[in-house]
Specification:
alpha+beta; Beta-Lactamase; Heat Shock Protein 90; six-stranded antiparallel β-sheet; five-stranded antiparallel β-sheet; 13 helices
């Protein structure tokens, strides 16, 4: 007992050590997997955001390229572009045509807006307050068309944006760089509208270095940042370019708010930079789940499982030692069973190979070159069906043989209703059953070519018997088709002739002959009973099919 207690204590120490090691490994692996998954998700998200921004910048450039600035001030300038800008499906909020109007064009712009039926055709300030146009001596940027046009958006027509604190500098940069420019974040659709961005692309008249206006698109910031994913591993924020100490974050509903960040809050785990409108934008990613806490919890679970398993192992160790003799005997029984199973598998492999060889011969002979494909197809299906039926019969008898009469009861034998059977009820071996099943099918399949002699179908008489005793006993089989002749009976196929004259007799160790009488076709087969019954095969099958006996004495 002391020795057993020492062994159990040693096993407990080893189990505790392994439990701790497994918990440590689980902690490190879980932490590494979480970090890898988060990094990959962030990379994919940043790539999708960049692709999204590229699509929107491409839309602005395509629209600018398709836009043709008129020589005279007009309204509804975006109408020809309607199909193109909606084809991109970039979920913009408003598309504007902002014209650079000279002071001399102000009256014409007023008349054009009034003629188009817009509610307010006056050129006014961006905040909808009146503006003194008589004091202006330089061009200003005025909204001349919007898309979509509804009760809210048409109210923006006629507003000048050159004094807007965010859009005004954006138009100035676009005029200077002559390319697409994006604004700082601002409220769209009014002071309390959603936060978004506006991208402007200058439109130039032919042979002119001065922009005639700008095609602009505004987008909600939440859609650009792809923030509405409740199942995401992280929350994404945008560094506010107007205030380096704050960040813009969107909730699950897509509402963007500003908060202090990059100082007051923990630094984002990962930073990514995307380009939009010639500017770099910084995206920050905060993990939604604390990977360290997850790893610690997993390590605790693994450690608890390890300790529990250690306790169970130590408790069962004595039981296992006490029952060692009983288990040894069960193992010996299992070894005997495996030996028997190996013998069964070897026997099955042998029989399957024989069946496959027969089927291969059937297919090769049936589908020989030059044969009628329809006739060959019917013969091939029938021959394989005959093999299938005899295998089913053998399986039901555990391969211990088949009643000879049972081969004629199978549905695979054509015209079985016209066959009269006479003979003793004997059981033939598996090998003989396979050969005789194919033999019966070949004989029956050629017995109904048409009406013959007296205008009737042939009727068939089958007879078998046993002559002699003991080792000299012979099996005699006779197949006779009455009311047929060589002229009316279907000619035997090459495969059938080989089967009737060589394969079947050789398989049974006997001889055969076939001939026509004046009123019938006869096939006879004679073979020793030893090969027809095959006692050796039967004894071997019975031996491997019997339950395994206990080998505890070994």
């Amino acid at each position: 007992m002391v020795r057993l207690g020492f062994v159990i204590g040693f096993v407990a120490v080893i189990g505790i050590f392994l439990s701790g090691l497994a918990a440590w490994r689980a902690h490190d692996q879980e932490l590494a997997i979480d970090n890898i998954a988060l990094s990959r998700a962030i990379d994919v998200h940043a790539s999708l955001v960049q692709e999204r921004l590229i699509e929107r910048e491409l839309l602005a450039r395509v629209a600018s390229g398709l836009f043709r600035s008129p020589s005279a001030v007009q309204a509804n300038m975006l109408h020809p572009l309607r199909a193109s800008i909606y084809a991109f499906k970039t979920d913009f909020v408003i598309a504007w045509w902002v014209a650079c109007l000279e002071p001399s064009e102000f009256p014409q712009a007023h008349d054009v807006l009034a003629a188009a039926g817009f509610p307010d055709s006056q050129i006014r300030s961006f905040d909808d307050t009146p503006r003194d146009l008589r004091s202006l001596d330089k061009p200003i940027d005025v909204i001349m068309d919007v898309e979509p046009q509804d009760a809210q958006t048409t109210g923006f027509l006629g507003r000048s944006l050159d004094q807007h604190p965010i859009l005004g500098p954006m138009f100035a940069r676009a005029m200077q760089t002559k390319t697409s420019v994006v604004s700082d974040p601002l409220n769209l659709m009014g002071r309390n509208g959603p936060i978004g961005l506006v991208i402007a692309t200058p439109v130039f008249q032919e042979e002119s270095e001065t922009a005639a206006g700008f095609v602009t698109f505004s987008y909600k910031l939440a859609s650009l940042m792809l923030t509405n994913d409740e199942l995401s591993l992280f929350s994404v924020v945008l560094k506010d370019p107007r205030n380096p100490g704050s960040e813009l974050i969107a909730d699950d509903s897509g509402n963007v708010t500003s908060r202090l960040g990059w100082g007051a809050n923990p630094v984002p785990m990962v930073l990514r930079t995307v380009t939009f409108g010639g500017r770099d934008w910084s995206l920050g990613y905060y993990p939604k789940v604390n990977a360290m806490h997850r790893a610690q919890k997993l390590a605790a679970v693994v450690a608890a499982i390890g300790l529990a398993l250690t306790s169970i192992i130590c408790g069962l160790f004595g039981y296992v030692a006490y029952n060692n003799l009983r288990l040894s005997r069960e193992i010996q029984v299992r070894i005997g069973f495996e030996r028997r199973l190996t013998a069964v598998i070897d026997e099955l492999n042998h029989r399957v190979k024989n069946i496959l060889a027969v089927i291969q011969s059937i297919v090769t002979r049936t589908l020989r070159h030059g044969s009628d494909i329809e006739v060959a197809r019917e013969l091939l299906i029938g021959r394989i069906h005959a093999m299938s039926n005899v295998v089913s019969l053998l399986s039901e008898s555990q391969w211990q043989g088949v009643k000879l009469r049972g081969l004629f009861e199978a549905r695979a034998i054509p015209h079985v209703d016209r066959i009269a059977i006479h003979g003793p009820d004997i059981t033939v071996s598996a090998r003989a059953a396979q050969s005789l099943s194919l033999l019966f099918f070949e004989l029956a399949s050629h017995s109904d070519e048409g009406l013959s002699l007296v205008g009737k179908h042939p009727n068939i008489v089958v007879h078998w018997g046993i002559e002699g005793e003991a080792d000299k006993a012979l099996f005699h089989f006779r197949w006779e088709e009455f009311n047929t002749s060589a002229a009316t009976r279907r000619e035997d196929s090459d495969f059938g002739i080989i089967l009737l004259d060589r394969v079947a007799p050789e398989a049974l160790g006997g001889v055969s002959k076939r001939y026509f009488t004046e009123v019938s076709y006869v096939y006879e087969l004679a073979a020793p009973m030893d090969t027809v019954v095959d006692l050796t095969e039967r004894d071997r099958t019975m031996q491997i099919s019997n339950p395994a006996s206990s080998t505890s004495s070994e």
